[in-house]
Specification:
Blueprint (H helix, E strand, L loop, with lengths): L7 H7 L3 H12 L14 E3 L5 E3 L7 E2 L14 H13 L6 H8 L3 H13 L12 E9 L25 E8 L4 E6 L4 H11 L5 E5 L12 E5 L7 E2 L2 E2 L1 H18 L7 H13 L5 H10 L8 H4 L8
Parallel strand pairs: 4-7, 7-8
Antiparallel strand pairs: 1-2, 2-3, 4-5, 5-6, 9-10
Helix pairs in contact: 3-5, 3-9, 4-5
The chain binds zinc ion (ZN).
């Protein structure tokens, strides 16, 4: 069922018409047969137009495979959705709504909405705490790079990101493993400690810089601090280069593609970025299918996206 493909061209040869896309999504969504999304009945009619009708007399509702998914209420063909998912998940730096609009021939507004829905489908699984050596650091998204402390500046982003809104992002990464990103109110221990306790195993070795916000850690963790202010960046196994590298990638993806991630949507950008980072060993097809699997029950309404004035950004 999950044919391997490693290019957009290969994928579109597999999904050469709308019916093939519908059939594929149906197989991904209901791998054990169609289930009525209204009442949960497995007794359903398959209608000629590819939709379904529930056999339960009290329910008897008609539904399509899109119902209750990120594709719900969308008039855009699944073929275009599949292309959008491919482009949004395969490019390391993501894709802007302007570029996506051109690539799949929709309006920029539609592309913008599609990208938000795709990001909303990302499943964040934090059931397992990070183990081994974990690097923790915080960074600022938005605001002028030149105003930041030298150790927090990211090469290649100077002068960019002149957005007024600055978000503080806490990053935790298992060396050689998973990345987790969170927005925090400010970089103090009150904000950071609960997130670290929630996400990092008690037996882990934690590496941070010398910031006061990490002073509490030695009481709960094996804690190594790198003294950036002293010009120290690596001290044996103690370094934070992995998380700083991830921050660098994230910032460049924001600068190059999104221009500005407004605070309102930053959680979804972070989740998307971390997910792509964590699924870097997956094949392109595997990644598309993984997103399709989580596309159900994660509907995002237009109303939830736009701001009070009805503008989208
Ligand atoms: Zn039903």
């Amino acid at each position: 069922m999950f044919q391997e493909f490693n290019s957009l061209f290969d994928m579109m040869q597999v999904f050469s018409d709308e019916k093939k896309c519908v059939d594929h999504f149906r197989a991904v969504r209901w791998s054990n047969g169609v289930v009525c999304p209204h009442c949960g009945s497995v007794e359903v009619y398959n209608l000629k137009d590819g939709t379904h009708k529930c056999k339960e007399k009290e329910c008897a509702k008609k539904f399509s495979v899109r119902f209750g998914t990120i594709f719900d209420d969308s008039k855009i063909a699944l073929q275009k959705w599949f292309m959008a998912i491919y482009l949004a998940t395969s490019h390391k730096k993501g894709i802007s709504s302007c570029q996506l609009a051109k690539d799949i021939k929709v309006t920029q507004k539609t592309a913008w909405f599609m990208l938000h829905r795709i990001r909303a489908a990302i499943l964040v699984d934090r059931s397992e705490p990070l183990t081994g050596t974990v690097e923790i650091d915080e960074t600022y998204v938005g605001g002028k790079e030149k105003n930041k402390h030298a150790s927090k500046r990211i090469k290649g982003t100077q002068g960019a990101g002149s957005a007024k809104s600055k978000a503080v992002v806490l990053g935790m990464i298992k060396r050689g493993g998973e990345l987790r990103l969170d927005v925090i109110e400010s970089a103090n221990s009150k904000e950071i400690a609960p997130l670290v306790r929630e996400n990092v195993c008690k037996t882990a070795t934690v590496n941070t810089d010398e910031g006061n916000q990490y002073n509490w850690m030695h009481r709960e963790y094996e804690h190594a601090q790198v003294k950036h202010a002293m010009g120290e960046y690596v001290n044996g196994d103690a370094y934070t280069n992995t998380i700083e590298g991830a921050f660098g990638h994230f910032k460049r993806s924001i600068v190059g593609v999104y221009h500005k991630a407004s605070d309102k949507h930053i959680d979804r950008y972070l989740n998307m970025f971390a997910w792509r980072w964590n699924s870097r060993d997956m094949g392109e097809g595997e990644r598309v299918n993984s997103l399709l699997k989580s596309a159900q029950g994660r509907k995002l309404t237009y109303k939830a996206l736009i701001n009070k004035r009805g503008a989208y950004e």
